[in-house]
């Protein structure tokens, strides 16, 4: 009988047999969107007592069991209100299973790009602030920044009341990169899909594929643009951009910025409701994150503070810097 290694005292003890039964032996009906599908496939597991977990089945892991367990222990120490709680893992021969708390409202990507339901502006800003807070903690809460390397709207999950939580942190070392085929042999490893989803990869990675904090900032900026435009990162709908437009979300918003028409990018459901000034400020923050030159992008700390300051006027629930566990005073310079 194979047991599951847990980092925190569980409400119920979980065994591999329980996970297999709870996911229907990893049946496709249990698949959920929770981070990159290239990293691994995520399944909703409903245990006999009715509680739910998310089980991510890694597609491949180059690490031996001893190295894998050491990496799990490192990731298991990362606990923050805006990270998806990582509860434990399981090693069975070549299988590597990661166990997370289940997020009932799903992935931001699913919510934004589904045909049902609208998100009002305060909720979208709250999501952006929460996700920024989590990534800022990863970047600035340690002597050496903890890089995410795969930020997307699918890696931002939503708990109750649309509280944003980031998943897939710490996974680059755990996944066996796919081999480069002849069609992509001249592309960098970030561009050909080993890490970094299409539409989220900063331009500098094409010539210098070394992960940086500013690379994470770029990807997060794309998420911020998705939040306010409701457009996909790799393409813009004809209804929004017009017939004949060829380009991605970043290119489109930069075109509108240059033409002085940045508000034309805003999701039509948000227009005409009196929040134009705040939304324009937000858009300018988002566009600064996707600047071509990485030196011109803000740090995640300053990005978080900018969004938090913008949100004070419309979000009544304060976000405590004490619980952020980063700095004693927002006014300190970093």
UniProtKB/TrEMBL annotation:
InterPro entries: Kinase-like_dom_sf, LRR_receptor-like_kinase, Prot_kinase_dom, Ser-Thr/Tyr_kinase_cat_dom
GO molecular function: ATP binding; protein kinase activity
Coiled coil: none
Annotated SUPFAM superfamilies: Protein kinase-like (PK-like)
Xref: Pfam families: PK_Tyr_Ser-Thr
Annotated signal peptide: none
Domain Protein kinase: 28-319
A Gene Ontology cellular-component term: membrane
PROSITE patterns noted in UniProt: PROTEIN_KINASE_DOM
Annotated protein name in UniProt: Protein kinase domain-containing protein
Source species: Vanilla planifolia
């Amino acid at each position: 009988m194979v047991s599951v290694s847990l980092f925190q005292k569980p409400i119920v003890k979980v065994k591999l047999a329980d996970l297999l039964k709870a996911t229907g032996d990893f049946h496709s009906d249990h698949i959920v969107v929770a981070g990159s599908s290239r990293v691994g496939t995520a399944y909703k597991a409903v245990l006999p007592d009715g509680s739910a977990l998310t089980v991510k089945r890694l597609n491949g892991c180059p690490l031996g069991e001893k190295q894998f367990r050491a990496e799990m222990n490192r990731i298991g120490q990362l606990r923050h209100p805006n990270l998806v709680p990582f509860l434990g893992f399981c090693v069975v021969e070549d299988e590597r299973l990661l166990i997370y708390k289940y997020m009932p409202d799903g992935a931001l990507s699913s919510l934004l790009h589904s045909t049902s339901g609208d998100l009002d502006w305060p909720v979208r800003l709250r999501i952006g602030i929460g996700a920024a807070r989590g990534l800022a903690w990863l970047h600035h809460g340690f002597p050496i920044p903890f890089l995410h390397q795969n930020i997307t709207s699918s890696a931002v999950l939503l708990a109750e009341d649309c509280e944003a939580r980031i998943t897939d942190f710490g996974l680059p070392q755990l996944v066996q990169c796919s081999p480069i085929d002849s069609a992509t042999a001249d592309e960098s490893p970030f561009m050909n899909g080993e890490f970094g989803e299409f539409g989220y990869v900063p331009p500098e990675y094409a010539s210098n594929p070394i992960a940086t904090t500013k690379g994470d900032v770029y990807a997060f900026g794309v998420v911020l643009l998705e939040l306010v435009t409701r457009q996909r990162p790799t393409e813009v709908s004809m209804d929004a951009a017009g017939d004949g437009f060829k380009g991605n979300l970043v290119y489109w918003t930069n075109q509108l910025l240059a033409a002085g028409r940045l508000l034309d990018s805003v999701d039509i459901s948000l227009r005409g409701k009196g929040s134009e000034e705040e939304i324009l400020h937000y858009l300018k923050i988002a566009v600064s994150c996707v600047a071509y030159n990485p030196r011109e992008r803000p740090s995640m700390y300053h990005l978080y503070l900018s969004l938090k300051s913008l949100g004070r006027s419309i979000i009544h629930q304060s976000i405590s810097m004490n619980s952020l566990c980063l700095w004693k005073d927002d006014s300190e310079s970093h």
